[in-house]
Predict the 3D structure of the following.
Amino acid sequence: MEIETNSPEETYKTGFKMGENAQPGQVYCMKGDLGVGKTVFTQGFAKGMGVDENVNSPTFTILQVYEDGRIPLYHFDVYRISDIDEMDEIGYEEYFYGEGVCLIEWAELIEDILPENVIWIKIEKSMTENFDYRKITIG
Ligand code: ADP
Ligand code: MG
């Protein structure tokens, strides 16, 4: 499925709708360049799950846990990971195979340890469209 957005708000809303429908045990894997809108999407997603806390991508924290929504949300940003061992240290399996929902920014960097069934969300800009255009591919 492909969705085109033309503002951060539209990307947020797309995330929101997916967050409303997220089910326990699902793993959402986000990929896309720096500044493309992964965190904007995630903020909408979290809100859609009923999370009221502020969601951002802290530079030196790989995992943020939000327990105040409909079901737990485990937000990973693995951009700064230098070794897959860091995921072991966090005890990632408990989250990936748990009853909450995982959303992983830069998931392609940890492709080797991803579960078999994940939902990919790719966000891209376009050279030919305007500055705020984004193409979101879900599948
Ligand atoms: P990432 O997490 O992928 O590094 P962020 O979500 O932190 O990116 O930042 C995306 C930036 O792009 C924000 O400054 C946002 O305002 C801007 N932006 C412009 N157009 C869009 C759009 N259509 N969707 C999402 N973000 C957009
Ligand atoms: Mg981000």
About this structure: The first strand starts at residue 2 and ends at 5. Residues 83 and 89 are 11 Å apart (CA to CA). The chain has a mean pLDDT of 95. Strands lie at 2-5, 27-31, 63-66, 73-77, 101-105, 119-124, 134-138.
